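Teaching note: in complex prediction, the entire set of molecules is handled at once rather than each chain in isolation. The prompt given to students was simply: 'Predict the structure of this complex.' The entities are:
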Amino acid sequence: SQQGEEDPQALSIQEGENATMNCSYKTSINNLQWYRQNSGRGLVHLILIRSNEREKHSGRLRVTLDTSKKSSSLLITASRAADTASYFCATDAESGGSNYKLTFGKGTLLTVNP
Amino acid sequence: NAGVTQTPKFQVLKTGQSMTLQCAQDMNHNSMYWYRQDPGMGLRLIYYSASEGTTDKGEVPNGYNVSRLNKREFSLRLESAAPSQTSVYFCASSGFMNTEAFFGQGTRLTVV
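The expected output is the structure of the full assembly:
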């Protein structure tokens, strides 16, 4: 089964509002990442937060990580129509030795209405 | 700097045919991945390679084989294609300790 699960599956908001997406995962991690995908194209990296960090900011993005609850949230502030996309969390689950595999959740489809 | 290059972009196969999806990266990354994306399923890991010469199964490896030809190239082979393998396939690579991953543009495969 997949390591990460995003919630909600779909989110529709008005331009200017904030959007919050959540991610839960199952096993211990080194870092958690968020990615964006436009219309079935390749994923683009947004932000990475390490397991020893609790919060990170990048422009209009704010990511939090709670390792005790195995959960993360992505907040996009002052959303724009161009933010319409699918958003995925990814975790690096240990797979033996020093190898880590990068696994993704099912994603949240964000629609920002003008 | 091309990043991650996948070929082909589109492919239609008949059931039972074989094909190889090619992936190459020019960022000197150690880790490379193959994912498939189906509607409502997100990205599921098929195989990955943590370094040249090593490969490991992911979540959905059945029906696929991979080859890490060298540090740059990681190919995915379908030996006998089935309609259940109709999907969009993505190759990705990342540096040490799985920091930011870079994705190819995807291969849209239809098996009829």
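Point out the following to students. The mean pLDDT of chain B is 94. Chain B touches chain A at residues 4, 31, 33, 35, 37, 40-45, 48, 50, 54, 56, 58-59, 88, 90, 92, 94, 97-106 (CB under 8 Å).
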